[in-house]
Amino acid sequence: MSSGGNIYCPECGTANELNAKKCYRCGATFPTVGAKPNYGDYDFAAEVDDYHLKPTTYIGWNIFLTCCCCLPIGLLGIIYGALAASSFNKTKYERADKYSEYAYRCLIWGLILGIVLWGLLIMNE
Ligand SMILES: [Zn+2]
């Protein structure tokens, strides 16, 4: 009678026959028999991958960087952040992620440069 696949019990994870109404081991009933039988093989990662989070633009941080350290790298970060946001709105998710990463790099390098420059200023006083 086991023809093509199993249904996995959501309670105990035991493999039952596909047309089973309830688990032979713990007796739990299967609510969606036939609809989505493979609880065990259900790919949660694919579902997460399908859902696109808006990428972080780091625009606020890069504006802060531009204002506080007067660094052009902050401006570059703002531009990349804006590009990330507009790419996301056009459903170009991969491009948006890339721009978001560029904006992040600008921010990090800007902060490092800023700290170094401020350090040099303080040491020269
Ligand atoms: Zn069970």
Could you characterize the architecture of this molecule?
Helices cover 54% and strands 5% of the residues. The chain has 125 residues and is mostly helical. It has two domains: 1-51, no CATH class; 59-124. A two-stranded antiparallel sheet has the order 1-2. The relative contact order is 0.11. The structure holds zinc ion (ZN). Residues 9, 11-12, 14, 23, 25-26, 28 line the site of zinc ion.
Brief account:
The protein is mainly alpha-helical and 125 residues long.
Q: Biggest sheet, strands in spatial order?
A: 1-2
Residue windows where pLDDT falls under 50 for at least 5 positions:
none
Integer average pLDDT: 80
The tally of helices reads 4
Total domain modules: 2
Helicity level: 40-55%
Q: Which H/E pattern describes the elements?
A: EEHHHH
Proportion in β-strands: under 5%
Calculate Rg over CA atoms: 26 Å
- Taken from the alpha-carbon principal axes, the silhouette is elongated
> Compounds present?
zinc ion
Largest sheet: 2 strands, antiparallel
- How many beta-strand runs? 2
Distance linking N and C termini: 86 Å
Helix/strand structural class: mainly alpha
Q: Which properties best describe this structure?
A:
mainly alpha, two-stranded antiparallel ribbon, binds zinc ion, 4 helices, 2 strands, 125 residues, 2 domains
List the helices and strands and how they pair.
Elements: E1 6-8, E2 15-17, H1 44-50, H2 59-69, H3 72-89, H4 93-124
Antiparallel strand pairs: 1-2
This protein binds zinc ion.
